[in-house]
Inverse folding.
């Protein structure tokens, strides 16, 4: 990606521009699941009417189901599609069982395998061996629906499964903070290798901070700026999922959404109301506050729970 | 535990948790999903297995959450835990370092093979289920697995529609032949009617104990194959007052133990959610 000095030093743009610029129809799009899920970005992809996307993540939860239902996804590569506590993925079920709104291709593995396939891509390798999937029907049946082979290790003779590497075109996640140059920091949950496997990443963040703040806490920089194409300042962009230290999962909202997804008619109402019916994330949050009150939103914020600051040390070099 | 401590005041879900908890050993490195397995492992840690280490697929080790986690990605799992990432958990699984994992499924057969992928034909399914998640690697690479699922004839089937998580496959030696972790496999299945184990020789599931108020013949009717019954079959050891009290405190919101009621509470502002509804 050729970039000017200005583009390198200031990657901040709004969600509309980032999605328009970096997601093309037909792309393979990686989305971080649950903690750090880029829900606001997913809403924008739907609003912009993206088509024929391949959606991938170790697990596709609420946001994945939402996108499948909207018709912008023609294929998923994943290990899980469900909403756990609050239910099944109703849009995914309608697509697979009834072809509504369109049939989708499902290339599935176990969730951990997606990580390994992403790691292979992040390392620039064409495939990775794995010791699970042996003996399951993932291996024995329907070979056309996924791309792996049983093999023997050329050194030890062990049976393994070879999985293809998985390199998405673009990745999205909702992180805590970044600087304008795209050095992104997260804490609280591990970030997947999916981000390193992508050609480029759009980092949606709760806060933009000075480069100095980022540089003073180097361990937390999980994605260096060369991978990051855009930084989008999008507070509450992960709602109804969680961003550590900022807000918890909104189970009430997620339950109501999952319940709405269970029927096509109410799913479409949901889209009209919460996705097409708002201009951007700011309006979405305004709508939330209008319907449920500011207190409900505030309730999602955790109490502060600090650790003692760590001392990285400052090294003058004068040790001789 | 003294006999006098046993109680009859419990729900079947609570008994299932207690049975699951008794299968965990002190010192186990255990991969735990949310729901009943988390309750079972926390109970074990607070009673007979203080050195149990709970590992969650999001990368948390030895989590000590402030409330029962509602999901494997729950915010409460991280503070107080050792936070690695999903990848490091994939590693301990691939290496065969985990002692035990909990899994469930929509269907199971007599060898403990589980299906959580589809009901019906894979390419044209009647019901599309969520898929493996972590279940396939857990069943393939943990030394032993604990299966928890409700007892129903349509779930305990001759042949599962799709093997998501391999049990003993076709019988003795089949796991090793396939390249799965040697000596591994399901060690127990806990249902809401009884506790089942797997025969050392044949690897076939048999009824080991029936829960209070369930009868052996009733259980056999809820299984599609001709279920073997242990000659020593007996009533499942009841939970103690202390165990039940602990569980009810741990899941004070009733998220898992009284799930239907909990979901109804989540729905209480339903009228505000969608315009015109």
């Amino acid at each position: 990606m050729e970039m000017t000095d200005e583009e390198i030093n200031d990657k901040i743009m709004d969600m509309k521009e980032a999605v328009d610029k970096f997601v093309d129809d037909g792309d393979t799009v990686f989305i971080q699941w649950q903690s750090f899920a880029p829900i606001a970005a997913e809403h924008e992809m739907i609003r912009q009417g993206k088509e024929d996307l391949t959606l991938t993540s170790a697990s596709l939860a609420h946001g994945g189901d939402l996108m499948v239902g909207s018709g912008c996804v023609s294929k998923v590569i994943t290990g899980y599609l469900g909403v756990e506590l609050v239910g099944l993925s109703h849009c995914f079920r309608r697509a697979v069982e009834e072809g509504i709104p369109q049939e989708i291709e499902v290339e599935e593995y176990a969730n951990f395998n997606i990580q390994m396939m992403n790691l292979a891509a992040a390392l620039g390798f064409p495939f990775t061996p794995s010791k699970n999937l042996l003996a399951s029907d993932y291996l024995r049946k329907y070979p056309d629906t996924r791309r792996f082979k049983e093999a023997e290790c050329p050194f030890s003779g062990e049976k393994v499964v070879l999985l293809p590497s998985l390199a998405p075109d673009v990745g999205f996640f909702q992180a805590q903070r970044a600087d304008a140059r795209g050095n992104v920091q997260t804490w609280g949950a591990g970030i997947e290798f999916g981000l390193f496997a992508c050609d480029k990443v759009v980092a949606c963040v709760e806060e933009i901070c000075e480069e100095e703040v980022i540089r003073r806490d180097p361990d937390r920089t999980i994605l260096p700026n060369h991978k990051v194409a855009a930084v989008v300042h999008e507070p509450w962009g992960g709602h109804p999922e969680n961003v550590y230290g900022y807000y918890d999962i909104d189970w009430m909202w997620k339950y109501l959404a999952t319940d709405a997804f269970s029927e096509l008619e109410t799913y479409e109402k949901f889209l009209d109301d919460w996705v097409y019916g708002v201009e951007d994330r700011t309006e979405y949050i305004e709508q939330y506050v209008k319907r449920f009150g500011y207190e409900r939103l505030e309730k999602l914020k955790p109490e502060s729970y600090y650790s003692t600051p760590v001392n990285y040390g400052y090294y003058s070099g004068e040790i001789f | 535990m003294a006999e006098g401590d046993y109680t009859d005041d419990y729900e079947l879900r609570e008994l299932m948790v207690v049975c699951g908890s008794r299968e965990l050993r002190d010192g186990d490195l255990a991969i735990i999903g949310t729901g009943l397995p988390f309750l079972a492992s926390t109970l074990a840690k607070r009673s007979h297995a203080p050195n149990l280490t709970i590992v969650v697929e999001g990368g948390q080790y030895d989590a000590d959450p402030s409330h029962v986690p509602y999901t494997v990605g729950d915010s409460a799992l991280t503070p107080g835990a050792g936070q690695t990432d999903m990848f490091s958990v994939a590693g301990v699984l691939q290496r065969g370092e985990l002692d035990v994992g909990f899994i469930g499924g929509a269907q199971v057969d007599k060898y403990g093979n589980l299906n959580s992928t589809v009901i019906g034909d894979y390419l044209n399914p009647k019901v599309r289920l969520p898929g493996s998640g972590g279940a396939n690697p857990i069943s393939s690479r943990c030394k032993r697995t604990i299966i928890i699922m409700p007892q129903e004839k349509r779930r305990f089937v001759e042949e599962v529609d799709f093997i998501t998580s391999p049990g003993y496959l076709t019988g003795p030696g089949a796991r090793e032949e396939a390249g799965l972790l040697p000596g591994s496999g399901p060690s127990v299945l806990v249902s809401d009617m009884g506790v089942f184990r797997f025969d050392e020789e044949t690897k076939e599931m048999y009824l080991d104990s029936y829960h209070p108020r369930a009868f052996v013949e009733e259980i056999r009717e809820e299984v599609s194959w001709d279920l073997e019954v242990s000659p020593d079959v007996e009533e499942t050891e009841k939970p103690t007052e202390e165990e039940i009290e602990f569980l009810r405190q741990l899941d004070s919101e009733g998220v898992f133990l009284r799930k239907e009621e909990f979901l109804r509470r989540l729905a209480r502002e339903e009228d505000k959610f969608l315009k015109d509804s």
